[in-house]
Amino acid sequence: MSRRRFDQAMQVMRKTDPQAREGAFDFLREHADAYAGELIGEFAAEADDELRCLLLELIAEARAPEALGVFRDQLESPDEALHFWAVRGLEMLDSREAEQVLERAREDGWIA
């Protein structure tokens, strides 16, 4: 996938037009696995809470093993939406490592 298309989609995601944002989100969701690294980078650099939540959802959709640390870090987020997508992302990874992170989070009381 083209980095240019990713950058264009991210520009649209930052616009205020809800329909345009939805179209860009749908494009990125469809290609999330191809852009996993870029999505993780954008998430780390993003300050807008709403966009961070959308990016974490896209990272979950990517099901990329390299997202394990991102999800683990967001388990302790006070933002309920980020916390939700962190748990969901770990579940979607469906790996031994992700299950261990979830188990530790249960033991520590971060999730039920």
Which helices and strands appear, and what pairs or packs with what?
Blueprint: H1 3-13, H2 18-30, H3 36-45, H4 49-62, H5 68-74, H6 80-93, H7 96-107
Question: What does the model show?
Answer:
This is HEAT repeat domain-containing protein. It holds the Pfam family HEAT_2. With 112 residues, the chain is mainly alpha-helical. It has one domain. 72% of the residues lie in helices and 0% in strands. The chain has seven helices and no strands. It has helices spanning 3-13, 18-30, 36-45, 49-62, 68-74, 80-93, 96-107. The radius of gyration is 14 Å and the shape is globular. The mean pLDDT is 96.
Provide keyphrases for this structure.
0% strand, mainly alpha, 112 residues, 7 helices
- Determine the N-to-C terminus distance: 38 Å
Strand content: under 5%
| Low-pLDDT segments, ≥5 res | none
Number of structurally distinct domains? 1
Calculate Rg over CA atoms. 14 Å
Total number of helices: 7
Helix fraction bin:
over 70%
- Helix-strand pattern: HHHHHHH
Structural class: mainly alpha
Tally of DSSP β-strands:
0
Protein name: HEAT repeat domain-containing protein
Organism: Actinomadura livida
